[in-house]
Design a protein that fits this description.
mainly alpha
Length: 248
């Protein structure tokens, strides 16, 4: 089984074999519950940081938070990815720290484009439930070719983002793709589609994990992986909407 989400990949099941069978096994209901808990924590944290920024004056720590706020959730994500057994403890902390950062980013977009955050949230939820329904009914199937294609596209996007970040440190900018022209809009639309299709692979991972009788702690791990994809999708939708709104 292959998934392009780096937190939900084949080797994770091998790492989880050391779990204690007496603790129970991974179930769909349990994973849904954990996903709901992590999502609630993220939304609560995002709402908190949102309220601090949406006033007339941003707090003194705003600039530092935007510059370094990603470090904590990124570090936690790496630890959870390499040591899945830490997910029950670290996944909630990840959701909170990432929620604070997402709230800060959302406040910036909302300040420039009123109502854009609500639109992005509704679109993210709509895409999630639409793809879940399509996967559940068999309209979309996570075949090996499908997985390979999404994996290649996701890896390509990740490498491209990393390259642009490194080049940006040296003052080199890639024109067009990050602007509000049609090329930039098409690129953002492509990334949104790939991010959305990663949800299908996440559903497949969860289904196979439950069928394989993975240890109970994998419910937290799978919920964490799904949250990673949802946040990515939400942020990419925000970016796409901002490009479209800036053309008005």
């Amino acid at each position: 089984m292959r998934t392009s989400n780096p937190t939900l990949s084949d080797h994770v099941f091998e790492k989880s074999r050391t779990g204690n069978a007496a603790d129970g096994v991974m179930t769909l209901n349990g994973t849904v519950l954990k996903t709901a808990i992590l999502t609630l924590l993220l939304i609560t944290a995002a709402s908190w940081s949102w309220k601090l920024i949406t006033g007339d004056h941003a707090p003194a720590w705003f600039g530092s938070a935007m510059t370094f706020g990603w470090i904590a959730p990124f570090a936690l994500a790496l630890i959870i990815s390499f040591v899945p057994k830490t997910a029950p403890l670290l996944a909630p902390i990840y959701a909170i720290t990432n929620g604070v950062f997402v709230g800060l980013i959302s406040s910036i977009f909302e300040a420039s484009f009123h109502g854009i955050v609500l639109t992005a949230v509704l679109l993210t939820c709509g895409i999630l439930f639409a793809l879940l329904a399509a996967y559940s009914t068999g309209i979309i199937k996570a075949t090996e070719n499908f997985k390979l294609g999404i994996f290649a596209a996701t890896a390509g996007i990740a490498i491209f983002y990393l390259a642009t970040w490194v080049l940006g440190m040296f003052g080199v900018q890639i024109p067009g793709l990050f602007g509000n022209g049609w090329v930039g809009i098409a690129f953002s639309g492509f990334v949104v589609v790939i991010a959305a299709l990663n949800l299908v692979l996440d559903f497949d991972f969860i289904e196979n994990g439950c069928a394989a009788g993975a240890p109970k702690f994998m419910e937290w791990y799978a919920a964490f992986g799904l949250l990673v994809t949802l946040v990515w999708l939400y942020l990419e939708i925000l970016r796409l909407l901002a490009k479209l709104r800036s053309r008005d």
